[in-house]
C-alpha cells in the first residue's frame, strides 16, 4: 500500500516501527556472521562481542512490542495496518530468537577454542550460517518490499538448510564413533548445527509473516520438512 | 472508564435471507445516488453500512422501508424482496411495511408525549392490542427490550423529551420494537450520544439481533466493527464490497475499501 494516511502521524508511527525491525534485522545478520566467523577463526574477542551485542537486539524487540501496543491502543489499525502491527511483533520475536542462537554459538565458541578443532566442521558450520544469513536477508527484503513471491521462495529454500544439518549430523556421528575424544567438541558442534537449523525455521516464520502481511492469507503450501534426523535410527554396521 | 459492550460473536450463524435487493437504483432528480446494488441481508444478523458521506448508504437504507417514497424527486428502481415479497409491489401498504421494517434515526426524536404514549403509539395505530392490559404488556416488554424499563418504570407518564439523550434514543428503539418488527433499520443511531450511551445502545443492538435483522448505517468504523457481523462498504453510489465484518476489517478485497477503513487518501 503506497497511499498515505490522512493522519500523517499514523504513517510516522508505522515507519518508526519498521525502522526498528530493519535495525534489528541488521544486528541479527551481523551476529550470525560474526558468531560463525569467531568459530572458524577461533577469535575469542569477536565471540565476546557477539554475546555483548545481543542485549541491543533484545532491547529493540521490547521497543517494537511497546510501539505496537501503543499503535493498537491509539490508532486502532485495520486491514493492512493491523496486519503490519501483528506481523512486526512476531517478526521481532523471531529475530530475537535468532539472535539468541547466535549468542549461544558464540558461547560454545569460547569452549571449542580450547579443544582440538574437528576436521572441517567449523568451515561447514560457517557455510551453513552464511546460508541462513542470506535467507534472512531475503526474508527481510521481502518484508521491506512487500514481496510475497520472494517470501515464498525463502520458505522453500529452508529445505537446503535442513539438508546441510542432516549432513553435519551424520558427520558428527561418524566422528564420535571413530574416536570418543571427539564426543565433547562434537556435542557442542552438533548444538551449533541444530541451532543454526532452528534459525532457518525462524527465518521461515518471518517469511510466512510477510506472505500474510502482503496477501492477508497464510501460506497454504505445507512446508516440506528436510530435517529427518529425528527418525534416523542409529545402526551399527558391523 | 465506561463499560464496553461485550464483544459480538464474529461468526455469522444465520443463512436465512431476510431482505434480497437486486439491481436497486435510486435517482434524486438528475442525480444518480445509488447504482445497481445487489445485496442479501441475513435474518438475525447485524449488517453495517459504511462509506464516506454521500456514498448512498443512507439512501439504500431508506429504500428498505420505502422512506424514499416521501421524497418527491426520488425514483427507485430494481427489486427489494422482504421474505421473498416485493416491498415495492402496488399492493403493499407502506405504513404496514414500516411496522415490519422499523427505523431509528440519528437524532433521538421522541414524540412530545409521555414515555408510555411514545411506546404505545405504534401498537395503537396498527390496532395490535385489544385491551389496556395487553397494551401495558407491550409497553413494558418493549421498554425492557430497549434496556430502558428499569430507568423509567416509575415515571411512565412523564414526558419522553425530558429523558437524557441516550435514554431518548433507547425510547425511540422501544417505540420501533413495539410493533414487533422483523427488521430494524438504524441510521447513525449513536452519533448524537456520548460514549456511555453509545455503549448501552451497542449492547442493545447485540441483544436485538436474537430477535430481528438489524441494519445499521454508521460513520464510526469502530462501531461497525464492534456491533456487526456483516459489513457493506458503499462508495460513490456503488456497493463496493460486502463480506463478513471480520474479513472487511482484516483483509478487505477491494483497494477502495482498504483505503477507506485504514484512513488513507484514495
Detailed description of the structure:
Chain A is an all-alpha fold and 238 residues long. Chain A is built from six helices and no strands. With 266 residues, chain B is an alpha/beta fold. Chain B has ten helices and ten strands. Chain B has helices spanning 57-63, 94-100, 115-125, 132-145, 149-152, 165-177, 195-208, 221-227, 245-250, 255-261, and strands spanning 17-28, 31-42, 46-50, 74-82, 85-86, 101-104, 183-187, 213-217, 230-235, 238-244. A six-stranded mixed sheet of chain B has the order 6-7-8-3-9-10, with helices on both faces. In chain B, strands 2-1-4-5 form a four-stranded antiparallel sheet, with helices on one face. In chain B, α3 (115-125) packs across α4, α3 packs parallel to α6 (165-177) and α6 (165-177) runs parallel beside α7 (195-208). Chain B is globular, with a radius of gyration of 18 Å. The chains are: A mainly alpha (238), B alpha/beta (266). Chain A binds chain B through residues 1, 3-7, 10, 76-83, 216-217, and chain B through 221-222, 225, 249-252, 257-259, 261-266.
Termini separation of chain B (Å)? 35 Å
Distance between the termini of chain A: 63 Å
Order of helices and strands of chain B: EEEHEEHEHHHHEHEHEEHH
How many helical elements of chain B?
Answer: 10
**Helix-strand topology string of chain A:** HHHHHH
Low-confidence stretches of chain B: 1-10
- Structural class determined from secondary elements of chain B: alpha/beta
Question: What is the subunit organization of this protein?
Answer: heterodimer
- The outline of chain A comes out as elongated
| Biggest sheet details of chain A | none
Number of helices of chain A: 6
Strand order of the largest sheet of chain B: 6-7-8-3-9-10
Q: Quick one: how many beta strands of chain A?
A: 0
Strand fraction of chain A equals under 5%
**For the largest interface in this structure, which chains are involved and how many residues does each contribute?**
A-B, 17 and 16 residues
Content of β-strand of chain B: 25-35%
Spans where pLDDT lies below 50 across 5 or more residues of chain A? none
Amino acid at each position: 500500500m503506497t497511499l498515505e494516511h490522512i493522519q500523517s502521524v499514523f504513517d510516522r508511527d508505522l515507519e518508526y516501527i519498521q525502522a526498528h525491525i530493519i535495525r534489528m534485522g541488521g544486528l541479527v545478520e551481523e551476529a550470525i556472521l560474526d558468531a560463525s566467523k569467531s568459530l572458524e577463526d577461533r577469535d575469542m574477542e569477536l565471540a565476546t562481542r557477539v554475546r555483548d551485542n545481543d542485549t541491543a537486539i533484545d532491547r529493540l524487540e521490547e521497543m517494537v512490542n511497546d510501539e505496537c501496543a501503543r499503535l493498537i491502543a491509539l490508532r486502532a489499525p485495520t486491514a493492512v495496518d493491523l496486519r503490519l502491527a501483528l506481523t512486526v511483533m512476531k517478526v521481532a520475536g523471531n529475530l530475537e530468537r535468532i539472535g539468541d542462537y547466535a549468542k549461544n554459538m558464540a558461547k560454545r565458541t569460547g569452549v571449542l577454542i580450547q579443544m582440538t578443532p574437528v576436521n572441517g566442521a567449523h568451515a561447514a558450520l560457517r557455510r551453513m550460517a552464511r546460508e541462513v544469513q542470506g535467507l534472512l536477508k531475503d526474508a527481510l527484503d521481502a518484508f521491506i518490499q512487500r514481496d510475497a513471491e520472494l517470501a515464498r521462495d525463502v520458505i522453500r529454500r529452508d529445505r537446503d538448510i535442513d539438508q546441510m544439518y542432516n549432513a553435519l549430523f551424520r558427520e558428527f556421528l561418524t566422528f564420535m564413533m571413530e574416536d570418543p575424544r571427539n564426543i565433547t567438541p562434537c556435542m557442542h558442534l552438533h548444538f551449533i548445527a541444530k541451532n543454526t537449523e532452528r534459525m532457518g525455521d525462524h527465518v521461515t516464520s518471518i517469511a510466512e509473516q510477510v506472505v500474510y502481511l502482503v496477501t492477508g492469507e497464510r501460506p497454504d503450501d505445507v512446508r516440506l520438512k528436510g530435517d529427518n534426523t529425528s527418525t534416523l535410527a542409529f545402526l551399527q554396521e558391523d | 472508564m465506561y463499560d464496553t459492550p461485550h464483544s459480538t460473536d464474529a461468526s455469522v450463524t444465520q443463512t436465512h435471507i431476510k431482505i434480497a435487493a437486486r439491481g436497486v437504483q435510486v435517482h434524486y432528480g438528475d442525480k444518480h445516488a445509488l447504482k445497481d446494488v445487489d445485496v442479501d441481508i441475513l435474518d438475525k444478523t447485524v449488517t453495517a453500512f459504511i462509506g464516506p458521506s454521500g456514498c448512498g448508504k443512507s439512501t439504500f437504507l431508506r429504500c428498505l422501508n420505502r422512506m424514499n417514497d416521501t421524497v418527491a424527486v426520488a425514483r427507485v428502481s430494481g427489486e427489494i424482496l422482504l421474505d421473498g415479497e416485493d416491498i415495492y409491489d402496488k399492493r403493499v401498504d407502506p405504513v404496514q411495511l414500516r411496522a415490519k421494517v422499523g427505523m431509528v434515526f440519528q437524532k433521538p426524536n421522541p414524540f412530545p408525549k409521555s414515555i408510555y404514549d411514545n411506546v404505545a403509539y405504534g401498537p395503537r395505530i396498527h390496532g395490535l392490542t385489544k385491551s389496556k392490559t395487553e397494551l401495558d404488556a407491550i409497553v413494558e416488554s418493549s421498554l425492557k427490550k430497549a434496556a430502558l424499563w428499569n430507568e423509567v418504570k416509575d415515571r411512565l407518564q412523564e414526558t419522553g423529551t425530558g429523558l437524557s439523550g441516550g435514554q431518548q434514543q433507547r425510547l425511540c428503539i422501544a417505540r420501533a420494537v413495539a410493533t414487533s418488527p422483523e427488521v430494524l433499520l438504524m441510521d447513525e443511531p449513536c452519533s448524537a450520544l456520548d460514549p456511555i450511551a453509545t455503549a448501552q445502545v451497542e449492547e442493545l443492538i447485540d441483544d436485538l439481533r436474537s430477535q430481528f435483522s438489524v441494519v445499521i448505517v454508521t460513520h464510526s468504523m469502530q462501531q461497525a466493527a464492534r456491533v456487526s457481523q456483516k459489513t457493506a462498504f458503499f462508495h460513490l453510489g456503488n456497493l463496493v464490497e460486502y463480506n463478513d465484518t471480520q474479513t472487511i476489517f482484516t483483509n478487505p478485497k477491494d483497494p477502495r475499501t482498504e483505503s477507506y477503513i485504514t484512513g488513507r487518501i484514495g
